[in-house]
Amino acid sequence: MKAVVLSAPNDFKTEYIEKPVIGDDEILLKVKSTAICGTDMRILTGKKTRGVRYPSVIGHEICGEICEVGKNIENWKIGDRVAVANVIPCHSCHSCLTGRENACMNRKAIGYEFNGGFAEYVLIPSIVMESNNLVKIPDDVTFEEGALIEPLSCCIRGQKNAGTKFGDIVLIVGAGPIGLMHMQLAKLAGAQTVIVSEPLASRREKAQKLGADIVVDPTKEDLKQIVMNETGGIGADVIIMAIGVPQLVNDTLKLCCKGGTVNLFAGFAGTGESMIEVNTIHYNEIKVNGSTAYQRQDYLQAAKMVIQHKINLKEIVTHKFNLDDFDKAYEVCKSGEGLKVVIEPEYQG
Ligand SMILES: [Zn+2]
Ligand SMILES: [Zn+2]
Questions:
Q1: Do 209 and 125 fall within a single domain?
Q2: 153 C-alpha to ligand 1 centroid (Å)
Q3: What pLDDT does residue 336 have?
Q4: How far is CA 73 from CA 8, 19, 20, in A?
Q5: What separation in Å is there between the alpha carbon of 150 and the centre of ligand 1?
Q6: 256 and 278 in one domain?
Q7: For 312-326, how does the pLDDT look when each residue is reduced to its tens digit (9 = 90+)?
Q8: How close is the Cα of 191 to the center of ligand 2, in Å?
Q9: Domain containing 317: what range?
Q10: Same domain (yes/no): 17, 58
Q11: In the chain, N or C terminus with fewer CB closer than 10 Å?
């Protein structure tokens, strides 16, 4: 089968490898759509190497059609359209036992320990089946939407950590695919006003189209002034950092209201170090937290949202490529000209 093989940091190409052979408790998925994630880009460019195997096939935002079913598998059949929750928690570490399976210390994942979705086929290993990590999607949900259930579930985890609630004024910093999902989720959670700050005009337009109340170009407008005007000088109730620039954190903290929450959702570039004027947190009792991956409950909620067409993910996909053109997809991601880029093995460019 065709697959994008990652041999070393910055060294990957589409080649033929052996099609996986399933065991009795496993499933083979014909990949229909796998989205490229920011994390994949960090792996491809060698910025992330921890937990990465060489050679391997990455890609963890996967949706496809079941094409082979092991003989012990019940409840799934050939032709089922499924999205994959790629993270498998261990169920026994400190994180898992204290309600944070998303931060499992021994997690295994498709796209990391197991070969991922930038291929014609992906093996769904038995521990994924045991963990009940497949979700069936109906015919009126596209495969690309199915692939985006995974990042959406990460955003749901972030929204829960941020505690967005009815009547809140929410600031989203960054309108990439993740920021655009957070914006829609904040509205669904009952936010009264969602302000989106984003330097790229095309992304601001998209944010507006998808329901942002206020969009701001932080390079030309005074974001602080706008947030303060909108909140009567109090600051935003919830702030989501959906861009991983450490230098922006300090200024962003100052846009939060007393007792508000700042969720550092994005993974931060470089060493992640940043100067913070900590008295902003101290005197204002600001809660600062992070977010990693998702719990299966978040994934199921994300899937339900997508299946019920409560969220617009189609608008977030701007480019499609097949496996042969993976390098083109990589360049588009690198340039930042698009939003979500998906790889569809059968795509006829
Ligand atoms: Zn991802
Ligand atoms: Zn665990």
A1: no
A2: 10
A3: 84
A4: 35, 20, 17
A5: 7
A6: yes
A7: 999 999 999 999 999
A8: 33
A9: 2-148+313-343
A10: yes
A11: C
Distance 86 CA to ligand 2 centre (A): 14
The residue type at 131: S
Peptide bond into 55 cis (omega under 30): yes
Say how many Å lie between the first and final Cα of the chain, rounded.
19
What would the pLDDT profile of 191-218 be if each residue is shown by its tens digit?
Answer: 999 999 999 999 999 999 999 999 999 9
Structure tokens at 95: 């994180």
Distance 234 CA to ligand 1 centre (A): 34
If one counts the domains in the chain, the total is 2
CA dihedral 73, 76, 82, 86 (to 10 degrees): -20
Query: What parts of the chain have a pLDDT lower than 70?
Result: none
Predicted pLDDT at 269: 83
The answer to whether residue 306 sits within a structural domain is no
- Residue 99 belongs to a domain: yes
| Ligand 1 centroid, distance to 274 Cα (angstroms) | 24
